[in-house]
UniProtKB/TrEMBL annotation, chains A, B:
Cross-referenced Pfam families: PALP
Protein name (record): Threonine/serine dehydratase
Keywords: Lyase, Pyridoxal phosphate
Residues in Tryptophan synthase beta chain-like PALP domain copies: 23-304
Keyword 4Fe-4S carried by entry: no
Organism expressing this protein natively: Actinophytocola gossypii
Amino acid sequence: MNLISVEDVHAAAERIKDAAAVRTPLLRCDWADPARPLWLKPENLQPIGAFKIRGAANAIARIPASARANGVVAYSSGNHAQAVAYVAKRFGLRATIVVPENTPTTKIEATRAHGAEVVVVPITDREIVAERLVAERGATLIPPFDHPDVIAGQGTIGLEIAADLPDVEAVLVPVSGGGLASGVATAIKALCPKAAVIGVEPALAGDAAESLAAGHRVRWTDEDRARTIADGLRAAPSDLTFAHLRERVDTIVTVSEEEIRAAVVTLATRARLVAEPSGAVTTAAYLNRTADLPQGRTVAIVSGGNLDQSLLAELLTHPTP
Amino acid sequence: MNLISVEDVHAAAERIKDAAAVRTPLLRCDWADPARPLWLKPENLQPIGAFKIRGAANAIARIPASARANGVVAYSSGNHAQAVAYVAKRFGLRATIVVPENTPTTKIEATRAHGAEVVVVPITDREIVAERLVAERGATLIPPFDHPDVIAGQGTIGLEIAADLPDVEAVLVPVSGGGLASGVATAIKALCPKAAVIGVEPALAGDAAESLAAGHRVRWTDEDRARTIADGLRAAPSDLTFAHLRERVDTIVTVSEEEIRAAVVTLATRARLVAEPSGAVTTAAYLNRTADLPQGRTVAIVSGGNLDQSLLAELLTHPTP
């Protein structure tokens, strides 16, 4: 299995730097444990509200001119959909997005608002439908995580962390399909070799944690993984991303649904950031998995901020379900 | 009346650059009117949740070594209090903060958490009590806006806007005591002379708008100005700040309470930013005062994000009072 290199990530950074991804700052948290100073990397502030714009931009930038007229297709539980729609529009490409039927309304509407065609299907059919559209139209599939260009694009977050806090000691990164964690770990292990890279998953979708501990991929059903409130973390690693996780991620910790809900509230009230549950898992781990994490300077990646207004209001009113 | 110069603002930027103020990015809003592209300047992401850290840092950095042992005193409706407390702690100075009794609990607790002594008094007594503390202790008063060093510190926001978006055409800035607007207008008019600088006030605390239209300071009572939900915008300009506003701010527009409440919700759901009502007035103006604003590239300063969790939940559930 060929893993991506930090040179691939540097090339991605060069390729996407004018593609509307924001250079997000590190935000120091004055409410953190002094023994483990905490900085947030607020990727919820990207134009589409999530880090996914980085991988989508790198993959779309590499489509050959001859294939651009046929457009792009993506399947996604939400943020990748918006990212592909947004970037495709900037490049002048037609985008068709296949989303599972449990996707939050906010995300479907936002995807349509970027000019994409949205096809809603049962969660288990999304890859098949996307592949059929690719075959029919000659379009290019932009996978949500299982592609070296997507992984390299997400890894640009790691380059920015290394540049802004070169003596970082721990980086906490959400794990779903593993593209973000694979890319970030590639950059951090190359540039800050002393730093630990810790994946974070909801316990209810903890297949990657179990797989990493077992040393091989353990399959959970889609239905099992769909139980978590963190709707962006319901995918499972591929062979490609699992190979990166095994090689470059130190460990994966899991957090409970209650811890995730409380972390959304902490981020809103203490860090003034609206994070979706998937984006709050790293803060949940920081606050609750102390014994499992290294001491020292910690960065938590807040991966996205797209949640329905009613859910945000509910969490602020009743953090405990 | 001597106004500050852009050189004073450049000097402030140099002085505060290691004082923990974040270099906030401009965030492009994909939901904006294409004829008036909108960028947010998210000062709610500063360590104390508001721009006030900039002015406080510049003023405290200039206290002579001989006076430091006597500490600093400030009076404030909240965010300036936290800023002075936070910066004083970093400089190793004792801080005493006088706050009015209608200050949100969040802000009082946050100020104490930064190690400051907090004295709660009726809103009309705060300046008197602060001056008495200064006389008794030989401490240095850090005023919330009526001081050239504070104005110059807040103006560093204008430098960053000019650097990141040199062809900006309109800058929207909240107006209370006028320190932020004075500083930002000084930087923008020097560096981007074609850009309009528009102040924004709640209509219920619209004394500066009325004063600017009249060409002289019109006094509103503290009680009148206390009616707005935007608790950070209840102060009135001083002679010093009003002189800056007259010379360098193009106009001041006002927004309703309902527009402010709705803008808090828009920022949370569309921009993933938690803004307090005072920080949301510029977005309210962008969305509702279209006829009064220039066309073209617009920056709205989101000045702060400290509001009680219960108020944020209420606004998300019932934006209309």
